[in-house]
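Inputs:
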Amino acid sequence: MFKAVVTINFKKSILDPQGNAVYKALKSLGYESVRDVRIGKHIEVNLDVETKEKAEAELKEMCDKLLANPVIEDYYIEVSEVEA
Amino acid sequence: MFKAVVTINFKKSILDPQGNAVYKALKSLGYESVRDVRIGKHIEVNLDVETKEKAEAELKEMCDKLLANPVIEDYYIEVSEVEA
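Outputs:
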């Protein structure tokens, strides 16, 4: 069994309205030291495959097909083996 | 300048409807090996403070006040120093 963590963020060039709203909210709560906020997705997927390579390949396909929008988002995948 | 990554997930005991929907979508796309999907938030915050300890303390406060809902969510914070 493999556990994958997929982190999906807007590309640097894409505006992040949710991050911007949180930035303003933090400022208005008095956190003057905040410089920038970006909000993305953190997806944990458990996969029952034989090898880490297979897990990574499947995850990449899932990201391109469903999880991320490659036009405006970047993703990265971290796979680790876990107890079944 | 410090860069913090805050990861926010539902507690294990809380249902994750978004994760469940993605799980079903992956199954219906033919990914039979998928066992579980949980979806959380990945927040990047840049902070202009003097020390790492101060950054961590401020982040913790921000999470409790605004970023996370401690009743149903767990969060963890990773702070690293970056170039200003």
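Remarks. The interface with chain A takes residues 1, 7-9, 19, 22, 25-26, 29, 31, 33-49, 58, 62, 65-67 of chain B (CB under 8 Å). The longest helix of chain B spans residues 52-67.
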